[in-house]
Amino acid sequence: MMGRTIFIDPGRCIGCQACVSACRECDSHRGKSMIHLDYPEEGRSVASLPTVCMHCEDPVAPCAEVCPADAILVTADGVVQQADTTRCIGCANCVNACPFGVPKIDLQAKLQMKCNLCYDRTAYGLAPMCATVCPTGALFYGTLEELRAERPGVQVADSFTFGSTTISTGVAMVVPADKVQWPVPGGLPIVEVNGVDVR
Amino acid sequence: MTEPPQAPAETPQAFAETPTASADPPPQTPAQVRRRATLAGVVVSALLIVAIVLGSRLLRDFDSALLPYAVATVFLAFGVAYRYTVWISAPGARRLFKQGWRAFFSVENFRRAPTALPKMIATYLGFQKFLGARSHARWAAHQLIFWGCVLAALITFPLTWGWFTFTSSTGSGPGYEMRIWGFKVLGFDSLNVVGWLMFHGLDIAAVLVIPGACYFLWRRMKDRAAITGQRFAYDLVPLIALIVISVTGLLLTFSSIFLHGGGYEFLAILHMVSVVFTLIYIPFGKFFHIVQRPAAVGMQLFKYTSRGKAGTAAGAAATAAGTAGAVVGGGAAAGGEEGLLTCRRCGEPIDAALYVENLQGTMRDLRLDFDEWAEYCPRCKRVLRGNAYLTHIKKGFK
């Protein structure tokens, strides 16, 4: 986990889309929002889940690893940048390989775009646009100590499991204290239990 | 933060078996890659030297004043071959490289879509339509630089290698003959339009390049999207190099026409130094995209020609998992696009099935052992992760 990073607490998200609107204002992808706001049980509950790039650290950036054009660079501070416009060939390898479903692709422009932690802002010590406007603190930017100063005793997780693979990330999620020893399940679904389709 | 290695009992499991064996040999070690790259560089630069010697009729047509340029092109050949070999040794590029050439040489593909490749080369590499979708101004500026550089390369490379000669039977003209490898291809009068164009081709190239490069330089100073993460050596040096080459090239013409050759020698050296630097820089910096970009045509051709074919591994996995996700292909599907893999959960098309299969091979090469996840669309991946969080982590989230 990076020093100053985003902490996501889906339990606080009210699905207001302020982060989605603010993300459009980011200079490095003006007019296009890179944050995803999904409603996992749409119609049944009001639960919502904001998704920014998790800036995978180990294995480092699967999107960058599968890129055939070496277009995705990881900066020294651990931020996985969006594709270099000169190199990106729009193949969508990163889109399909990202375990978190983060990158977007413009097939006409042959260009991948994704959250780069508002590098134009965070490089100068400012919080990313989404965390700046989030009214409930579902998206918090700072160090773990700063988070705990505001929310005493809060626990976070920065590893996720996808099948047999565990991925450590630069961005972390808030988890209940009794779940902190677990990597967070990444969502690879159970489709069969004892030969019965449970989808 | 957490203790990662031990997965919880509730951790969802993978759903269906997908092939894990890779038909490709194991990835090479860095030392092996370096050795292969060095060998490729030596072979390509040696071939270029032989081509220069033979093409200049055993150096009879070689202009010794252009020797530094010719030497720089040999270094360029070595550098490009070296970096290209290193590049295509990485799993992602290697698999795509093979599939691109396979699609290129496929007789079946040629029969099915004979115009696909020329069309892609023209629209993608020549007119770069994709840049227009990013920004019209950037497209226009890039076109100016592109065609200017193509023109300059077509003139200067054969000239410095001694492949082109311009000779006059009357000593100082105006009748000139243009010869390639010693064979006469064109006779022209240096005082008419054709002659002017022939002798000012590089000036025209410079006039095209300067406004394009200046626009990009201006953008690098003003546009905050471009400024984010830009690096001097990677983003600015190439533009400055193009401008220096073009301006000094134009000043050489200015000197010979208006200054009776005043300052010509200094300008010639400055021009030569900037060109040699740029040629040697090509394999290491931003200009390498010139060499990389054609790979995109291979990728496009592979995807395009895959549309009519069903993937084997992805298809088998889809069949094993039931009907939630499937490969629509093989010409049997009614409706839907042929050869596309659809999301296992929502049924939305993801990409060409064979392309996803190729990506899954790359993921396995890289030990990214969640390659079956590639058969879900990005939104379903996020929603399923949200559901897992709801179910296993924070029920209060509901």
What does this structure look like?
The longest helix of chain A has 7 residues. In chain A, a hairpin with a 4-residue loop joins strand 5 and strand 6. Chain A is built from six helices and twelve strands. Chain B has 398 residues and is mainly α. Helix content of chain B is 61%, strand content 7%. Chain B contains 17 helices and six strands. In chain B, the strands form two sheets. A three-stranded antiparallel beta sheet of chain B has the order 1-2-3. In chain B, strands 4-5-6 form a three-stranded antiparallel beta sheet. In chain B, strand 1 and strand 2 form a beta hairpin.
- How many β-strands of chain B, per DSSP? 6
The secondary-structure element order of chain A is EHEEEHHEEHHEHEEEEE
Uncertain runs of chain A are: none
Percent in strands of chain B: 5-15%
So what's the overall shape of chain A? globular
Strand content of chain A: 15-25%
Strand order of the largest sheet of chain B: 1-2-3
Oligomer: heterodimer
In round numbers, the mean pLDDT of chain A is: 89
Largest interface: which pair? A-B, 85 and 77 residues
Instruction: Please work out how many helical segments of chain A DSSP would assign.
Output: 6
List the helices and strands of chain B in order.
Answer: HHHHHHHEEEHHHHHHHHEEEHH
Largest sheet of chain B: 3 strands, antiparallel
Q: Structural class of the helices, strands and pairings of chain A?
A: alpha+beta
| Estimated helix fraction of chain B | 55-70%
Q: Mean pLDDT of chain B, as a whole number?
A: 85
Task: State the gist of this model.
Chain A has helices spanning 18-23, 62-66, 93-97, 119-122, 129-133, 144-150, and strands spanning 5-8, 36-38, 49-51, 56-58, 104-106, 111-113, 139-142, 155-162, 165-175, 184-185, 192-193, 196-197. Chain A is α+β, with helices and mostly antiparallel strands.
SSE map:
The complex is a heterodimer of chains A (199) and B (398).
Chain A (H helix, E strand, L loop, with lengths): L4 E4 L9 H6 L12 E3 L10 E3 L4 E3 L3 H5 L26 H5 L6 E3 L4 E3 L5 H4 L6 H5 L5 E4 L1 H7 L4 E8 L2 E11 L8 E2 L6 E2 L2 E2 L2
Chain B lengths: L29 H26 L11 H21 L3 H15 L1 H6 L3 H11 L2 H6 L1 H25 L3 E4 L7 E6 L2 E7 L3 H7 L1 H22 L1 H4 L4 H27 L5 H18 L7 H4 L1 H13 L6 H9 L5 E2 L11 E3 L6 E4 H13 L12 H16 L5
Antiparallel strand pairs in B: 1-2, 2-3, 4-5, 5-6
Helix pairs in contact in B: 1-2, 2-12, 3-14, 3-16, 5-14, 7-9, 9-11, 11-12
